[in-house]
């Protein structure tokens, strides 16, 4: 089989595991995320455990990556080269946080939550895609 088929299968398997983990942890429910962000009300700490688990998995993955010469299904690792904290990063982070707090979703759980069929989720994903498209068109013209 070609490398592209293996890459597709690996990406599909990763997405399925990610979506299953989100569902299992309850992160497809925006009320749970908003409960985590409500530190002065009825705080729900469950997201902290999910995030902690994700940090541990990412740490192990990065340590394994550092020991590899190249990825199993690629020619090289694609790591960020820009480590500057600038206005676009701060503005983007603030917009992400606002969307996360208001909608109770970040992009991965929002797409996974489409399987539940709630109209609010579909509206959030459409608005998210419109924002991404707008950003792409504006940012491309600046470059």
Written account of the structure:
71% of the residues lie in helices and 0% in strands. By secondary structure, it is mainly alpha-helical.
Q: What would you say about this model in short?
A:
The chain is an all-alpha fold. The protein has helices spanning 3-25, 30-37, 46-67, 87-103, 107-113, 119-142. It has six helices and no strands.
Order of helices and strands: HHHHHH
- Overall strand count: 0
Structural class: mainly alpha
Mean pLDDT: 89
- Taken as a percent bin, the fraction of beta residues is under 5%
Structural shape:
globular
Specify the helix fraction band: over 70%
Radius of gyration over all CA atoms, rounded: 18 Å
Uncertain parts: none
Strand-helix topology:
Layout: H1 3-25, H2 30-37, H3 46-67, H4 87-103, H5 107-113, H6 119-142
Give the key terms.
6 helices, mainly alpha, single chain, 143 residues, globular
């Amino acid at each position: 089989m070609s490398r592209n088929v293996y890459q597709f299968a690996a990406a599909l398997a990763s997405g399925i595991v990610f979506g299953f983990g989100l569902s299992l942890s309850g992160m497809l429910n925006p009320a749970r995320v908003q409960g985590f962000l409500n530190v002065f009300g009825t705080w729900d700490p469950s997201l902290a455990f999910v995030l902690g688990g994700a940090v541990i998995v990412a740490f192990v993955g990065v340590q394994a990556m550092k020991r590899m010469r190249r990825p199993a299904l690629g020619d090289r690792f694609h790591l960020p080269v820009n480590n500057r904290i600038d206005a676009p990063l701060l503005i983007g982070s603030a917009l992400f946080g606002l969307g996360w707090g208001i909608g109770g979703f970040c992009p991965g759980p929002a797409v996974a939550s489409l399987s539940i069929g709630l109209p609010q989720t579909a509206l959030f994903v459409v608005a998210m895609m419109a924002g991404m498209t707008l950003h792409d068109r504006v940012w491309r013209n600046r470059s």
